[in-house]
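Person: Show me a sequence?

Helper:
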Amino acid sequence: MRAEEIRKVAKQRPFKPFMFHLDNGETQAVLHPEIVVGNEIIVAIDANGKSIIIAPEAVSAIEFLEAEPDIVVSERE
């Protein structure tokens, strides 16, 4: 997939979580807007908080994900 197409998805605001479908059959969820899309490399954060690196040409499709369940955050005292 062209980097420009991926960049348009990543820059949408409000951010919508999505999944990369890769040409090797694997998938990679992008749940946070912390993503950098260059012409030759994509760097994102996976669900475990680890950096992932993908070549744009390895992305065969992008699927938008349903919204994540509400997360309750307690206020600090």
Observations:
- Residues 69-77 have pLDDT under 50 and may be disordered.
- Residues 3-10 form the longest helix (8 residues).
